[in-house]
Amino acid sequence: MSEEAYVICALSDIPSQKARGFHLGIVNEKGEPESFPLVVVRWGKNVFGYRNKCPHHGVHLDWESGSFLDDSGQRLLCGKHGSLFEIGTGRCSSGPCKGEHLEKVRLEVIDGDICVLGLTLIEDENA
After folding, report:
1. How many CB atoms lie within 10 A of CB 95?
2. What is the pTM of this model?
3. Domains in the chain and their CATH numbers?
């Protein structure tokens, strides 16, 4: 049995070397609906996904809405306390949570769409 992949956007919706946030509705382990903030970073044809939640205090990385990357555009930045995270691994390289990791979310590009795997999304019945 194959794992379900849910399309969240087209690859072309996120420019290379940029990040975009999403708010997904998921079904958690208890079978209950839950809000799931997600950040997706595109680097060429590669995409990286993480729960939009800093391991330091649990706040969203984009303290300013949609602002995920540091000034160099090379690392994810927590706008609250300045922690910096490696894009490819989610590992904190600097800041109050140094050595900790963002929670990775499995993504795959399928037919030009960015799809999330490993989560059960609440699908919009009106779509």
Report:
1. 17
2. 0.91
3. 6-117 (2.102.10.10)
